[in-house]
Write a structure and sequence with these properties.
The protein is α+β, with helices and mostly antiparallel strands. The protein is built from 2 helices and 9 strands; from the N terminus they run βαβββββαβββ. Strand 1, helix 1 and strand 2 form a beta-alpha-beta unit. It is globular.
Length: 175
């Protein structure tokens, strides 16, 4: 039994949906960062950690985001989250709006309108809060709905902590 199906390209037919190239990213697709440099006042860009996906590579190349290195850098909670592209100052800001309506539950809204970036932000937040470089190894994800709002619910392996990510801003927004 074949695990992969060969797709034959022909001059007369389009590629199947899963083989379509990623649409180009431009500055209009990236929401402006809410923060400004504490040193010079210029608008900031977000710093992203972990192995870059194609969307992040494009954002790095356009100067709309900055690579932060390995995901393990966020474990201490003091890794910079923002960078000034003008004076190159890095600082800890916020990529998230977080509330804790009850013990053991964190509700998180990620400030992103791009799905690939939003998913990376979920992983980055979980790595920091759970203290592990690979949060997928110690938490389970399931789709959820809160009052009609699509969410990702992550439950820590110990069952003591639940993270509810509001994905309504980026869910379904390619890339």
């Amino acid at each position: 039994m074949a695990l992969f199906r060969r797709v034959k390209r022909t001059a007369s037919g389009p590629l199947p949906p899963q083989a379509q190239p990623m649409p180009p990213i431009d500055a209009s697709m990236v929401p402006p960062c809410d923060e400004h440099c504490p040193d010079c006042g210029s608008p900031a860009i977000h710093i992203w950690y972990g192995a870059p996906n194609p969307a992040l590579v494009e954002l790095f190349n356009l100067g709309l985001a900055w690579p932060g290195g390995a995901m393990s850098r966020v474990l201490g909670g003091d890794a910079p989250t923002h960078r000034c592209p003008d004076c190159e100052t890095d600082w800890v800001g916020s990529l998230y709006d977080v509330t804790q309506p009850e013990e053991g539950l964190e509700e998180v809204r990620i400030r992103s309108r791009l799905m690939m970036i939003g998913i990376r932000a979920e992983h980055q937040y979980l790595a920091q809060r759970l203290g592990v470089p690979d949060p997928l190894s110690v938490a389970n994800r399931m789709p959820a709905d809160k009052n009609g709002v699509p969410c990702d619910m992550w439950i820590a392996a110990d069952g003591q902590r639940v993270f509810l990510f509001d994905v309504s801003e980026f869910f379904g927004h390619w890339p």
